[in-house]
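Reading a protein record of the kind used here takes little practice once its layout is understood. The fold follows as a row of integers, each naming the local backbone shape at the matching residue. With these conventions in mind, the following record can be read line by line:

_____
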Amino acid sequence: MKTQKISLPSAMTHPRLILGLVLGLMLGLGLGPGASDALAQNFQKPQDRVSRNGQQVEENILLKPDALVDGQYITLGDIFSGIDPTAEDIAVAHAPQPGKQVVLDYRWLYGIAQRNSISWRPRTTADQVTITRASQVITMEEIQEAVQDALTQHGVQRPFAVDLSSENFQIHLPVDAQKRIDITGLDINSRTNRFVASVTTGAQTAQKRTYRISGKYYPLSSVPVLVEPISRGSIIRPDQVEYRDFRTERVPSGAIRDINDVIGKEVIRPTNPNEPLMFRDLTSPILVRRGALVIIRLVTANMSLTARGKALENGSKGDVIRVVNQSSNKTVQVEVVGENDVRALPAMSQ
């Protein structure tokens, strides 16, 4: 008997179609679902997810969206997670400068993966990694302090303030570098108070860098100011005033310079805290008012006498006023020493 060969259409030779036919036949023969599951597992191979170049893509290798690096190089471990631990420290690019960032796009990442046999490929064109280089920061305040010291060494008298032309300037150093700055050059124009400073970091190392920074210094004057609002008519207490530095050019000509000229004075004009005080803003408080009864004191080396009197005029502390001695009904000159308290002068006159 002859055996007839039956040719299957080309579509019927597809592995998945063949698998479906075999599974159907096994179920028809009563072999049960367990046998069909085992057959399906044997048929399916791990190469189901394959990149375009035929390289297997591991599901557990993922892209890190960002990374912070300390050193000079970017490694595979900074970019990918789930790779062979022995490959994590392989350097693939130079890191950005300290404090700077760089963005690695999907094309560059895919090329690095292929060159290093990493089973990863981009899912979208938006795949990228942001690399940030860690740094130590030298602030503007630290630079100003170094420049002030250098100006003092060059003969500029303190106190003074330094104003640098770059308000937001910062210096970023590698994390393993010595955090130190040196003023290696300083050109001063004493007529305009302007200067140009050479600020150097990493002196005597391979990481040495020098920055040219210009600015101006301003002489300061220390004047008393109020530390809180004080209403008109109030007497200023010692805890309500302190010294503060201002640019000399900004201090008004009539400003009070001595704190003793402020304490105990009466406020007669509205004043703002933290601003120079003017003599016209304050006055000596009236301790004795006209018509008030006062105590007259006469103190000598051998005796101390008191008498009652009536003030004929107003007086502040230290003022010499006239009062009437109620015992003798005589007018005498006295010095105001306190509230309704006066001291008889050695030569008393009517």
Summary: Residues 105 and 128 are 5 Å apart (CA to CA). The two ends are 166 Å apart (CA to CA).
